[in-house]
Amino acid sequence: MSSWLDYTINGLIVGNVYALVAVGLALIFGVSRLINFAQGSIYLVGAYIGWVAVVRLHTPLPLTIIVVAAAAAMVGLIIERFGLRPLQNSVRIAPLLATIGISFVLDQLVMLTFSPNPRALPSQLPDVRFQLGGGTIGPLDLLIAGVGLTSALLLFVFLRYTKLGWAVRATAQDRDAAMQMGVDVNRVNQAVFGIAAALGGVSGMLVGMYYNQIDTAMSLQATLKGVVAEVVGGAGNVPGAVIGSLLLGLVESYGVAVFGTSYRNLFAFLLLVVVLVLRPSGLFASARQAPPEPLTGTFIAPSRPVRIPRWALLVAAAAFAVLPFFPVSSYVLQTLINAWLLGMLALSLTLVAGTMGQVSLGHAALLAIGAYTSALLSLTLAVPVGLAVIGGGLMSAALGTLLISPSFRLRGHYVSIATLAIGEIVSLVILNWESVTRGPIGISGIPPLSLFGYDLISPFSVYWFSFAVMLVLALLQGRLLGSHLGRSFRAIRDDDIAARAYGLSLNRYKSLAFIFGGFAAGVSGGIAAHLYSYINHETFNTQQSILALTVVILGGLGNVVGAIVGSVALVGLPELFRIAAEYRILIYGIVLLLLVRFRPQGLLGTI
Amino acid sequence: MTNPSPEPLLSLFNVNTFYGQAQVHFDLSITVARGHIVCLLGGNASGKSTTMKIILGLVKPRSGEVTFDGASLIGLTTPQIVRRGIASVPEARRLFADMSVRENILMGAFVRNDREAVALDLDRMLTLFPKLGQRLSQRAGSLSGGEQQMVAMARALMSRPRMIVMDEPTMGLSPLYVDRVLELIRSINQAGVSVFMVEQNASLALEIAHEAYVLQTGRIVLSGPARALKDDPRVRDAYLGGSEAA
């Protein structure tokens, strides 16, 4: 059994690794007020470059570190130059979405190049442990600590004593004023992305050596942990990011010591939520720290929505309604059923993210809540499936709103971080709350859809059922947008301070949006559970959240018809072109990037 | 249009600027003669600060020409314009609050590479602004408004500019500091630096300026030697009367 000292050492080492990621995030946030969601992907790339260097090229350790740092820095520079710089004059949300797209593209490229199977990354260091008080410490621990300290020292010297370092600090404090001193902000961005990527890449390599295993799931985890550490320390605050990381490492390590390994991430995200709620500018925010991102007004691309005549919508709806009467394969129907289910999720997200301006990155959690509720109601309490699905929707509405409510006072990027964390928390609770959710085993034998005692098993009936449910939700939402309530939502999105000055209660309206959105997503999850007949904690994952976000942006934020068109397009087109499953996420990422760059208002325009 | 000097250092000619659909400047033309202090007067939302942003390249005009020392500034980035010899004292000072006073002043010399001369200039600033000597290692954000204004001016001078543009240098200062700032602007100018300043406080600005322009909702409505404008009843009514009564 390991001693407390061991857990402390482990916490500090892991914290060191997080710090390498978080410091980069803090530097980037400092100069460009951007949370770089691609940071974890660079960490992943670093790990795999390390693998190539060690296993294929047999480089000695110092050279491995240099190769990884240099290659990762290159990736960072490319991201900055081609992914983000063209968006400089774009809407504020664009760079955020671009980093999400870039992260998907990078992760998928790594996966396609190296296969998703885990690989061993040998550490190249002797496997010995030294006694240290009541614990032990190995050469790799010392290496990680050494790399962490050296990086911190180099960074300090860079920021304090070099001209470019001064430029970085000046830009972080006042971008316009820095430009008026002659600072080339593009060079500053470049420097910061290069440094952040080098540190992130080395971090990935070290973690790979520490656990002697690398796989593509590392990416999202690293982004999440880095973001947690950075926000805990105070966004944009470099020393804060280091302290936040060590704190996070220790909290996790002690949490694991007391409750077990599967609780590690739960502690990380709970720490984040607690900090976001109690002290959103972080534990070590300087007095002058900008308040949490006033990303209003220009947050989403303003545009005139494409007008679609009512008859055209009716014709389209009628055509889809009578489609099963034509000789179409059940494969086509199955694809469209998936599109309708995704459509419900997209309706929910387009309301929350588009109409209300709260860009949620954890929307899949609402699916999961709806799915588990409906499945458990019908299985354990023998509630009729039709009612159970509605129960799932209600539970999602209630629980989703309750979970997000502490974050109502957050704005912009912080909402995205909070929703991402809440999404992870839901998934981790499902994993760990075995007495109710059956933990990692999942729930099997979920009864099929049925309505008033009739089982809906044939593709036709499922098709009509899901289509009808989606249509009803879409009509309701369309009515909502045209109403006074819809206008209030948009007012809050466009300028929450002005909206408040007019007497709108932000909490009430945000709650209403999440209640409606939660219901739609919960119903979608509930139906999905009965269709799949088996679900577990990974059925509804972050990839689905991001897919829904891509759908919503493709259709046009806030646009009801757009959400449905986007769903059909993103589910249907890959099927139509028979694109292999492993390339799909790559394509979603590329679609997201292209949209952000060339048509941020989406196909049908934002509302 | 008045053009007091045949060879202006800075000139804006027929500049039209838009924020989205809204037009900010209508055929704006302004010249700053070498060695002069030129002041742009105007009320809120008249387009004064945008004029400064145009000169510094922070906002791009839709049409028109901006030249400095005979060469066009259109299409240049802000850092490139700064390297041509234009320094700025931005509105509300805009110091780097978490950097020390010393670092702030040295940031002004960012475009220079002659270290020894920069060090000498820093000493020169401390004789010009003796109060800052004791504050060098203090956080700039902890200074009073007047002291911050001194740092902002020292910072602007550190690039050895040919021209300084100032956005409301007396805004929010105590009367004591207002006089001090005006004196400093005059002495900076006597050392050979041209000054273009944007001001709301017309009576003060007209005291030290050579020429002045009056901007009203994006159009120059009056211009001429400062002395003449000071006695112009229209300026009196619009600005001086109001500010003296207040």
UniProtKB/TrEMBL annotation, chain A:
Membrane topology: Multi-pass membrane protein
Record flagged with keyword S-adenosyl-L-methionine: no
InterPro entries, alphabetized: ABC_transp_permease, LivM-like
Localization of this protein: Cell membrane
Residues that span the membrane, as ranges: 12-35, 42-59, 65-84, 96-116, 136-159, 191-211, 266-287, 308-326, 332-354, 385-405, 412-431, 451-476, 512-535, 547-573, 585-604
The keyword Transmembrane belongs to this UniProt entry's keyword annotation: yes
Main subcellular localisation: membrane
Classification via CDD domains: TM_PBP1_LivH_like (cd06582), TM_PBP1_LivM_like (cd06581)
Alphabetical UniProt keywords: Cell membrane, Membrane, Transmembrane, Transmembrane helix
Protein name (database record): ABC transporter permease
Protein source organism: Bradyrhizobium diversitatis
Source organism phylogeny: Bacteria, Pseudomonadati, Pseudomonadota, Alphaproteobacteria, Hyphomicrobiales
Automatic annotation (TrEMBL), chain B:
Keyword list, A-Z: Amino-acid transport, ATP-binding, Nucleotide-binding, Transport
InterPro entries noted in UniProt: AAA+_ATPase, ABC_transporter-like_ATP-bd, ABC_transporter-like_CS, BCAA_Transport_ATP-bd_LivF, P-loop_NTPase
CDD domains per the UniProt record, alphabetical: ABC_TM1139_LivF_branched
GO molecular function per UniProt: ATP binding
Residues covered by the ABC transporter domain: 10-242
Functional description taken from the UniProt entry: Involved in beta-(1-->2)glucan export. Transmembrane domains (TMD) form a pore in the inner membrane and the ATP-binding domain (NBD) is responsible for energy generation.
Family, similarity comment: Belongs to the ABC transporter superfamily.
Protein name: ABC transporter ATP-binding protein
Protein source organism: Bradyrhizobium diversitatis
Record lineage: Bacteria, Pseudomonadati, Pseudomonadota, Alphaproteobacteria, Hyphomicrobiales
